[in-house]
Fold DegT/DnrJ/EryC1/StrS family aminotransferase.
Amino acid sequence: MAGVSEAALTVQSRMSSDPMVNKFIPISQPSIGMREKELVLAAVESGWVSSIGKFIDEFENCFARYCGTEFAIAVSNGTTGLHLALAAFGIGPGDEVIIPDLTFVATANAVAYTGATPVLADIDPETLCIDPGSVEALITPRTKAVMPVHLYGHPADMDAIASIAKSRGIIVIEDAAEAHGAEYKGRRVGGLADCGVFSFYGNKIVTTGEGGMLTTNDPTFYNRAKRLRDHAMSSDRRYFHDERGFNYRMTNLQAALGVAQMERIDEFLARRAEIMAWYRSVVRTSDVVRLNRVQNWAHSAFWMVCLEVDRFDAGTRAAFIQSLKQRGIDSRPYFYPLSTMPMYQQESLPVAARKSRVGLNLPSFFDLTKSDVERIGHVVNELIEDASLR
Ligand SMILES: *Cc1c(COP(=O)(O)O)cnc(C)c1O
């Protein structure tokens, strides 16, 4: 095997027609079809390769329509989208923004970029999203915004958050980077608060390579965010700027990919739900071994398949991930709580700490087959039995 890269082996085994060959199953992989290629090529050939072009408009329009919002703004990625949203709401030094302890680090970094302080709330053990009770306890006169994250595709309890925030004039920004198409009480995420922010990174539900989107119904916010995205250029005096903005624009090439992906979003979500059902039929669960939980008011987008094994500790989970890898199956641990990282270090929050310790994500992507999931499920069952984790 010397000199043969793992990537080469993966490609080779993926191309094999022998179903008994144990191909390496990645945790995530984009689905780029003929239509995506057609539209990206059209964008390239049009000469509109930067951030002006018809695909930007089309992508923004179709995304707003999908989320049921009045407006959408395409941006360079989800992190810049979060930063832009906070900046456009005027959040800055001296302000506090409440976010969940368990999330991807971008949620906290975007707050810190503005000079405001990220304040960490604990999570709800059922949804893995921010716990409204914890939010309420953290509110101070400096609290300017709350940023719930629809973690792993499951929506946060938005009504409970709104009832805490609205009466106090606190802004609510949805970090919907992981939850395109998820529904809360029959309404799609992105349209549930003052603003929604999405990511189109390569492993997200819809991808543009790198990219992001803001969604909103607020015309004042919309105009301000759009101006700040483009260096706050004056609309009547070109190259005059009356405040400091950003270049957070998306390219027309990325938007072309996004338009083609949005034509397939129903198909993407249906497949993710199907994959989840396959996992449920093969993985043996119990009181201490669980797959994704879904509240009766929610439709999860199932961005990630979540396996929780209560008897995991750092060592046994790492060994489990290693054993999966040896059997050709990729997986990844849940996010680490922000409160354990040097930039945001503080006293730990019990639910986030516990969930972070016992959770891992298993493969889920459009081209995963039922037999792939059966293979993964059998290995998972076997490893759990072997380690007496049930
Ligand atoms: C992916 C992600 C982001 C950031 O998106 P990028 O496009 O990678 O910058 C923000 N928040 C959450 C919860 C994410 O999962």
About this structure: The longest strand covers residues 71-75.
